[in-house]
Amino acid sequence: MSKKLNNKDVAQNSKNSKNPKFDLRDKKVRSRLYTILFVVAFGVFFLVNNTNGEDEKGPYPPGYFEVSSQQLNLADYKGKIVLLDFWATWCAPCRAGVPDLVELKKQYGDKGFEIIGVSVDGLTRGGATQKDVIPFIKQYNINYPIVHANNDVIQNFGGIRAIPTSFVLDKDGKVVSRYEGLIDKSTYEKDIKKILSADFENKELVQAPNFSLPLVEVK
């Protein structure tokens, strides 16, 4: 025997059939729903942007440049005569002096002589010429390591007021000579021969500050 429902019963059943937890007319329910949708949307966005290809690079601030993971430590050159050359690709005297440095390395490399070129391209002219360092190395057939300078090294070496600025270090890492501007190859040769001589003394010389700088990797 079926039961006939009156209007009161219908209203009561309709009320009982609704789940108050999912009533979109409730502000708290709507707020929770919007929060869930936002979290889901953000998660999808994050997943897509981290699985489709490589991350986009930049924009970078002025003077920014990517550094190599390989570091050059000056302390590792103890036991060698070292010529430190602070230079930049945009510097005309620097460019003029590079061929002599290449020749010096060829002539004295087997006598315990090394050159380290310290590029200041990343610190000058807003870093605009830093990208030119590797093409420059290839163009001039540079046969000695090049590193990127930082401000700490510039200050530790007394502040580089002009480029090129070069330092000749003896086998103990002490400063034998400091030069500003373009220097003739013969001047460097005198220093090298003096250090190699039997009567060379370095007791009064000052130790050069050590550094660890990113090496320019030419591929």
Layout of secondary structure:
Elements: H1 7-17, H2 27-49, E1 71-73, E2 81-87, H3 92-108, E3 113-119, H4 133-139, E4 146-148, H5 151-156, E5 165-169, E6 175-180, H6 185-196, E7 212-214
Parallel strand pairs: 2-3, 3-4
Antiparallel strand pairs: 1-7, 2-5, 5-6
Estimated share of beta-strand residues: 15-25%
Per DSSP E runs of 2 or more residues, the count of β-strands stands at 7
Spatial separation of the terminal alpha carbons: 92 Å
Radius of gyration: 34 Å
CATH topology tier name of the largest domain:
Glutaredoxin
**What's the structural domain tally?**
2
Task: Describe the protein.
With 219 residues, the chain is of the alpha/beta class. It folds into two domains: 9-49; 71-214, Glutaredoxin, CATH 3.40.30.10. Helix content is 35%, strand content 16%. The chain has six helices and seven strands. It has helices at residues 7-17, 27-49, 92-108, 133-139, 151-156, 185-196; strands spanning 71-73, 81-87, 113-119, 146-148, 165-169, 175-180, 212-214. Strands 4-3-2-5-6 form a five-stranded mixed sheet, with helices on one face. Strand 5 and strand 6 (175-180) form a beta hairpin. Helix 3 runs parallel beside helix 6 (185-196). The chain starts with 6 loop residues before the first helix and ends in a 5-residue tail after the last strand.
